[in-house]
């Protein structure tokens, strides 16, 4: 059975909710990623409070006339964070992403530590053309 651990891009990194968006953007560039899970630094377990994307920074901050050196990652986090465990099967990954219409899904290990992120590109390597078309239709509907 294919698991989330098989699909994910390993080595995902947190950005603290208190981090400014200009620094978050620099981290995205350094890591060559378009999204970063956001952690709540007031929580001793560093629980995830959302995901920040490059699009969020551009649309919700820069295009809205805000200063990315003053707006924090936590300011843009909305909704309930979603994730799967490393042991989740492909069907569970697809249900979570399709059911919540999300394009990136954090993967958490048994100790509740962030160990990876699953993106559409990661899924494309593990799905048939029909499965991929169905995924895209459901997520972008």
UniProtKB/TrEMBL annotation:
Residues 8-68, 76-134 form the CBS domain. InterPro entries: CBS_dom (IPR000644), CBS_dom_sf (IPR046342), Diverse_CBS-Domain (IPR051257). This is CBS domain-containing protein. Keywords: CBS domain. The keyword Nucleotidyltransferase does not apply.
